[in-house]
């Protein structure tokens, strides 16, 4: 009898264990299923948001019609093939993610730059439409003029004014295989380039409604004509901004490392102040002769903004960041003023950055009135203009 009771007790315990384990398994299964549903809903929500952003970006230019209007000339592929000598390698003057840029001569004898868009898919198509639509409407002496385009079947080409001295980047950082003859830019020339580039962004932000945000402003997109006058170029990533004061648009984070504003990189919220940050980085390039990111430099100096920002408002230290290629031939009053403007532009908080109109107003007094007397490559520490006491101060003036 005792043996039967023992077996019965063991059977009951075994049954209880089985029931407990089965219950735990069911609970674990329910938890796993709940977590799966949570993750699935979260991913679906993110995809929905991303699709919404993508749809907004596409719909912004969805109704564009590429037609011969607003002064743009429509070229055939054959015409541009002929203008570039069959897209000869000897006529290549630039290259980027979009494709190659060729030097060419069109039928009326004008020299032009022809961008051959070789980026396949919707992104390349979108960038092509953005440039044609925007540049057909924008008119400023500080923006690179679009003369026409070609949209034959799968060929997408854009035709611009030819800029004889290429990009600013090629003169700040000369390389042996450059397509232009690098020139040593003196201080006065750098100031004029800074002002003209600022006027280009000011036009986009202040004179166009709603404003246009360039989104890829950098030294290689500042092109120089034969007299080293600057024009802002490359609008493939441009975005129509918010028409509300202080408003932003949400978009995918695009741009070039070292130039992208921190708040845009973190949140995808794009404003005109994002361009102001990029402009500040270019000002630092003009001051220092350094690229925005160079991890081969000593510790602490790899990121231009992080290294330079603490030194920009210190009169004694700002001279230590100046480009050695200038050989000390500059006015310290002007250096202090430009450094203060740069410091304001690259502030981590977007609200603390100036408007481009303020930047222009601060730079105008620093640029000589008689621009025709300036010579690229010449060095002079004597500047004709006089700064007011306020401009002689270390603190920001914008």
Automatic annotation (TrEMBL):
The chain crosses the membrane at residues 13-38. Keywords: ATP-binding, Kinase, Membrane, Nucleotide-binding, Serine/threonine-protein kinase, Transferase, Transmembrane, Transmembrane helix. GO terms for molecular function: ATP binding; protein serine/threonine kinase activity. Residues 87-367 form the Protein kinase domain. Coiled coil: none annotated. SUPFAM superfamilies: Protein kinase-like (PK-like). PROSITE patterns: PROTEIN_KINASE_ATP (PS00107), PROTEIN_KINASE_DOM (PS50011), PROTEIN_KINASE_ST (PS00108). It comes from Acacia crassicarpa. InterPro entries: Kinase-like_dom_sf, Prot_kinase_dom, Protein_kinase_ATP_BS, Ser-Thr/Tyr_kinase_cat_dom, Ser/Thr_kinase_AS. This is Protein kinase domain-containing protein. The keyword Membrane applies. Belongs to the protein kinase superfamily. Pfam families: PK_Tyr_Ser-Thr (PF07714). The keyword Disulfide bond does not apply. ATP binds at residue 115. Residues 374-398 are annotated as: Disordered.
């Amino acid at each position: 009898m005792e043996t039967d009771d023992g077996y019965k007790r063991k059977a009951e315990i075994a049954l209880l264990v089985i029931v407990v384990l089965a219950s735990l398994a069911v609970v674990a299964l329910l938890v796993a299923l709940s977590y799966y549903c949570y993750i699935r809903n979260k991913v679906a929500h993110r995809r929905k948001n991303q699709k919404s952003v993508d749809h907004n970006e596409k719909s912004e230019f969805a109704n564009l019609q590429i037609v011969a209007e607003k002064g743009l000339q429509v070229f055939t592929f054959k015409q541009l093939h002929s203008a570039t000598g069959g897209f000869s390698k000897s006529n290549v003057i630039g290259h980027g993610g979009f494709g190659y840029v060729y030097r060419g001569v069109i039928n009326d004898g004008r020299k032009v730059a022809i961008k051959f868009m070789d980026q396949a898919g919707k992104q390349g198509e979108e960038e092509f439409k953005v440039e044609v639509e925007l540049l057909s409407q924008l008119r400023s002496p500080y923006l690179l003029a679009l003369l026409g385009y070609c949209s034959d079947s799968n060929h997408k080409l854009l035709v611009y004014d030819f800029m004889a001295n290429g990009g600013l980047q090629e003169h700040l950082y000369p390389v042996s295989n450059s397509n232009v003859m690098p020139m040593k830019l003196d201080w006065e020339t750098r100031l004029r380039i800074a002002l003209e580039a600022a006027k280009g962004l000011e036009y986009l932000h202040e004179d166009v409604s709603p404003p246009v945000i360039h989104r890829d402003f950098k030294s290689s997109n500042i092109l120089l004509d034969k007299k080293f006058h600057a024009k802002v170029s490359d609008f493939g990533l441009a975005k129509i901004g918010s028409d509300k004061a202080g408003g932003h648009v949400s978009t995918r984070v695009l741009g070039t490392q070292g130039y992208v504003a921190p708040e845009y990189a973190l949140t995808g919220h794009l404003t005109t102040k994002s361009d102001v940050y990029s402009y500040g980085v270019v000002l630092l390039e003009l001051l220092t002769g350094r690229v925005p990111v160079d991890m081969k430099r000593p510790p602490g100096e790899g990121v231009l903004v992080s290294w330079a920002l603490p030194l920009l408002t210190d009169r004694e230290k700002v001279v230590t960041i100046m480009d050695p290629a200038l050989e000390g031939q500059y006015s310290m009053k002007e250096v202090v003023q430009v450094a203060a403007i740069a410091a304001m532009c690259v502030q981590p908080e977007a609200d603390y950055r100036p408007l481009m109109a303020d930047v222009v107003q601060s730079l105008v007094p620093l640029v000589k009135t008689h621009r025709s007397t300036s010579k690229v490559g010449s060095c002079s520490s004597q500047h004709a203009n006089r700064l007011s006491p306020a401009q002689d101060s270390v603190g920001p003036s914008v």
